Amino acid sequence: MGLNRRIAALAIVIAAIASGLVASGAFAAVTNTGLAGSPPDFSTATHWRQGPGNVTRPVWQGNVTRPLWQGNVTVTSEQAKTIVGDAVTALQIGEVKDGGSIWMVSIKYNDKVVMTVVLGKLNTPTSGDALKAVQDSMGRGWSAGEPKQHRFTYNVPIMDANGNAVGNIRVDGRTGDITAGF
């Protein structure tokens, strides 16, 4: 029995030492800011936010800067629409690719792919049907829709005769060139 009591007492001592080490390590982790120098000054916080576990945390505004996009857009939205509207007459149908449950028909401008029309195989079961559907839609007339600017690029939707968007053509807002690729 004496040996069992000694083992139990040793286990209690080890547990007490371990819990003390864990507690001191947790305290050091909480108080350590990870930065050299003094801890942050909470008096400069612009407002306080309720965080997880009902802990109130300071929030600083204006201290975090993110890089802003630098550049000049020389093309207006109307000019982008006109550029694409003029290019619609020069669009050519490229190759048809199998995408599993869809057909992808590439549309070329100046021998570069600028747009892809996606058609489901339910309505166009063969590649020939997909090609014919795009040719018919293009024959009825496509036009440029209202551009949306994303940084220095304009995405101009291509609208069919029924007013449905069949794809987008991108225009570089710095140069006015139609962007090839996706």
Protein described:
The structure is a single chain. It contains three helices and ten strands; from the N terminus they run αββαβββαβββββ. The chain has 182 residues and is an alpha+beta fold. It has a domain at 77-179: Roll (PH-domain like), CATH 2.30.29. The chain is elongated. The model is unreliable at 63-68 (pLDDT under 50).
Describe the secondary-structure layout.
Blueprint: H1 2-31, E1 47-50, E2 56-59, H2 77-87, E3 92-98, E4 102-109, E5 112-120, H3 127-140, E6 143-144, E7 148-150, E8 153-159, E9 165-172, E10 178-179
Antiparallel strand pairs: 1-2, 3-4, 4-5, 6-8, 7-8, 8-9, 9-10
Q: What structural category characterises the helix and strand content?
A: alpha+beta
CATH C-level of the domain at 77-179 = Mainly Beta
What is the percentage of strand-forming residues?
A: 25-35%
What is the residue-averaged pLDDT?
A: 80
Order of SSEs: HEEHEEEHEEEEE
Please state the second-level CATH architecture of the domain at 77-179. Roll
CATH topology of the domain at 77-179: PH-domain like
The largest sheet, given as strand count, sense and whether it forms a barrel, is: 5 strands, antiparallel
Low-pLDDT segments, ≥5 res: 63-68
- For the secondary structure, the number of strands is 10
Continuous helix count: 3
Report the helical percentage. 25-40%
Mass-distribution shape:
elongated
Cα-atom Rg, whole angstroms?
A: 32 Å
Oligomer: single chain
Distance between the amino and carboxyl termini = 79 Å
Short description:
The chain has 182 residues and is of the alpha+beta class. The chain has a domain of 103 residues: PH-domain like, CATH 2.30.29.
